[in-house]
């Protein structure tokens, strides 16, 4: 299986940066992921990410850690952080950059420990893929939480990407799928990944799913463009 992300991160880290990752989505948009952004420092992070890192406490699992930006920041603050990613290249980069604890594994296959804080940043809830996977995904998060633990996640309500009518409503295709389900393909140096599903989740839908599973769901802060930071915790 191609490790598109890991290959690109390794190239950038070793001074071989010549192009960014291209993305193609079911929303008919071609876009790119600038590699320098994947190595950003705290000051370059969006405010929602900064807020999440400021709220992190105790033992921390950074899920979908990428190049390890969040883990490194928290580690330097003295926290016990484990960086987790399904990309072998990403974990290699984390080790090279000084992350002391890292795991190469998919999130749903990881159950080695429980944590005080689970981080799902850069729309990490997208790993659920489809809305009908959300309950099992949230249950797995619950299984990794200490009794007083928290999940900090950011996501976006992508309703704005659909056509708006004169009354302020949006024309969303009525095909039976949740509008936040997007299929992506990544391309780097003429190699393409297999298609994968990614979930953009509006807060109301997240809150409803959490309530059904006895999870508290708090809106911490809204971003500037349909994005938000949420905190999940176990109901006592």
Structural class: alpha/beta
The fraction of residues assigned to DSSP E strands is 25-35%
CATH topology: Rossmann fold
Unreliable spans are none
Protein name: SAM-dependent methyltransferase
InterPro entries: SAM-dependent_MTases_sf (IPR029063)
Keywords: Methyltransferase, Transferase
Organism: Flagellimonas aquimarina
Describe this structure in words.
The chain is of the alpha/beta class. The chain has a single domain (45-182, 200-234), classed as 3-Layer(aba) Sandwich (Rossmann fold), CATH 3.40.50.150. The chain is 24% helix and 32% strand. The strands form 3 sheets. It has a 7-stranded mixed sheet, sandwiched between helices. Strands 1, 2, 10, 11 and 12 form a 5-stranded antiparallel sheet that branches. The radius of gyration is 18 Å and the shape is globular. 34% of the residues are buried. The mean pLDDT is 93.
What features would you highlight for this structure?
single chain; 236 residues; alpha/beta; Rossmann fold; 7-stranded mixed beta sheet; 5-stranded antiparallel beta sheet; 14 strands; SAM-dependent methyltransferase
Brief overview:
This protein has helices at 4-13, 47-55, 69-76, 88-97, 134-143, 203-212; strands at residues 21-25, 30-33, 59-63, 80-85, 102-104, 115-120, 145-156, 163-164, 170-171, 181-188, 191-192, 196-199, 215-222, 227-234. The protein is of the alpha/beta class and 236 residues long. It has one domain (45-182, 200-234): Vaccinia Virus protein VP39 (Rossmann fold).
């Amino acid at each position: 299986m191609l490790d598109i992300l890991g290959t690109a991160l390794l190239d950038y880290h070793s001074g071989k940066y010549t192009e960014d990752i291209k993305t193609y989505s079911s929303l008919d948009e071609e876009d790119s992921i600038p590699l320098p952004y994947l190595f950003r420092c705290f000051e370059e992070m969006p405010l929602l990410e900064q807020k999440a890192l400021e709220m992190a406490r105790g033992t921390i699992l950074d899920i979908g850690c990428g190049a390890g930006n969040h883990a490194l920041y928290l580690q330097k603050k003295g926290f016990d952080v484990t960086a987790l990613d399904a990309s072998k290249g990403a974990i290699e980069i984390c080790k090279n950059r000084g992350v002391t604890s890292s795991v190469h594994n998919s999130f749903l296959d990881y159950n080695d420990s429980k944590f005080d804080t689970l981080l799902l940043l850069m729309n990490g809830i997208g790993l659920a893929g489809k809305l009908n996977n959300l309950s099992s995904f949230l249950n797995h998060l619950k299984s990794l939480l200490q009794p007083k633990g928290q999940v900090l996640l950011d996501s976006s309500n992508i309703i704005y990407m659909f056509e708006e009518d004169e009354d302020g409503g949006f024309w969303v295709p009525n095909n039976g799928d949740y509008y936040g389900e997007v299929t992506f393909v990544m391309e780097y140096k003429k190699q393409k990944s297999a298609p994968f599903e990614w979930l953009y989740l509006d807060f109301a839908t997240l809150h409803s799913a959490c309530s059904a599973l006895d999870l508290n769901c708090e809106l911490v802060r809204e971003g500037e463009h349909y994005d938000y930071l949420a905190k999940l915790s176990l109901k006592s």
